[in-house]
Amino acid sequence: MTALYRRTELNGRARYIEDHRAPVAPEHLRTLLLGYVRYAMGRRSAAPSMACEMVRCYADQIHPADLWQIRQEVQDELDRHTEDPEFGLLGDDCDVTEWQRLVRWIEGRQK
Which one of 1, 29, 81, 89 is separated from 38 by 20 to 30 angstroms, measured CA to CA? Predict the structure, then answer.
């Protein structure tokens, strides 16, 4: 995972200290996660797996209804993919599998 850094001053010199807190207001985290999931659903790259990992990582910091919305949007695309596998919005087979795992993971948390 990429580390974030916070700038501090020590003896008049700038220093950068590793900071693992998300530098995002809680009310904006939902928007960032949902936006990145939407972006990643259209990519054939590392973005789908990164988006799924981010959702898992920050799930405790967003409202359960927001997490369920992410699940619903991914499930909607999975349903479209099932109806027309050539549609291709979800990426390669490995990406589809990753999205399916994310949906199951969210459903498991919500029970």
Answer: 1
